[in-house]
Design a protein that fits this description.
Blueprint: H1 5-20, E1 23-31, H2 33-49, H3 54-74, E2 89-98, E3 101-111, H4 112-127, H5 130-143, H6 155-163, E4 168-173, E5 178-188
Antiparallel strand pairs: 1-2, 2-3, 3-5, 4-5
Helix pairs in contact: 2-3, 3-6, 5-6
Length: 195
């Protein structure tokens, strides 16, 4: 690797932009159980240093764990194509805070089929009232079946319940078969959310 001034200046500019936008953690790569565990430990440590109420810290941590599990289980870009090996997903994970709002942003590659299912699920979650989300959650716990990747479909519902906000998302087409799925979750550091 050729470390020259131009390269270092680019890294410095990116770092300055991250700090300006409140990003405290940015990661691009594999999301194995070990890496997910490392991020949860780092975030728990960082949250313990913040002056937020315990309930806010708990919500941020819970939502972060949920989005990390989604990256691990539901990325269509896997570390290994061999089914006998660890099938960790790849993606982008960003955590930040601006004033009293925490942001968790993720991005991962999804197939067109998964895109359609995800968009339908997000639209359903985003259009639901607080009480409807609660009913959806309870129904999914009682009747939900595990997917081939171990999920029961609770993640998006749970994130919306914990944040009290709509899920901001976007799909960017890569080619005729795949999209980048971007999810931005906002968690207020002020108000309590009724679950």
């Amino acid at each position: 690797m050729n470390l020259n001034f131009k390269f270092l200046k680019s890294v410095s500019t990116i770092y300055d932009e991250m700090v300006h936008n409140g990003f405290s953690m940015v990661y691009l790569g594999e999301f194995s159980a070990e890496i997910t565990g490392m991020f949860t430990a780092m975030t728990e440590n960082n949250l313990s240093k913040q002056g937020d109420e315990k309930s806010v810290k708990k919500r941020v941590f819970h939502v972060m764990v949920e989005v990390l599990q989604n990256l691990n289980k539901h990325s269509d870009e896997l570390k290994s194509e061999d089914p006998s090996k660890d099938q960790s997903g790849n993606g982008l994970f960003i955590v930040g805070r601006i004033e009293d709002t925490y942001y968790i942003i993720t991005s991962n590659k999804v197939s067109k089929e998964r895109r359609d299912l995800l968009e339908s699920a997000i639209k359903q979650v985003n259009s639901a009232t607080h009480d409807e989300l609660k009913q959806m959650y309870l129904k999914q716990i009682k009747e939900g079946q595990l997917s081939s990747k171990g999920g029961a479909g609770l993640g998006l519902i749970d994130i919306a319940r914990k944040t009290g906000k709509r899920l901001n998302y976007q799909f960017i087409e890569l080619d005729s078969e795949y999209y980048f799925f971007i999810l931005q979750v906002e968690i207020s550091g002020k108000t309590a959310v009724k679950e």
